[in-house]
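Render this sequence as a predicted structure.
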Amino acid sequence: MKNPQFTLDYSVMYYDTDCGGVVHNLAYMRWVEECRTKMAPAIGIDYVTLARQDCHLVIVRHEVNYHSPAFMADEIKVLGWVESVEKSSFWCRFEVRRKENNKLCVSVRQRLALVQMPKGRPCRIPEDWYKCAAPAEDLAD
């Protein structure tokens, strides 16, 4: 990704690791969730307004690839962007990288649906969200 839409910097804490000092999978998922939540307003997604309309983003698919472990006290960065937008859902991608050498630790792809609650019916993605998708040339790995 040439131009991530959001970057979250993080220092790996003791509680992010197992007894061997290796980051456990739950920590990676928490960082991705934090990145996506903080990225939303930066790209025009307003969770408060959506909630007032009883619309909520729901993860419907979560793909995770573990490439290289991160360790206690590592400085890492989580890069996030919207990959594509469809009628009632969109795909986000995330990379967790070690800051010192840019080594890829984890890559994540998530599909989120916009759902009207409590009925559980899909909602149309607002037109302005379509501009959030990263251009194809930026998605080169």
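Summary. The radius of gyration is 16 Å. The chain has a mean pLDDT of 89.
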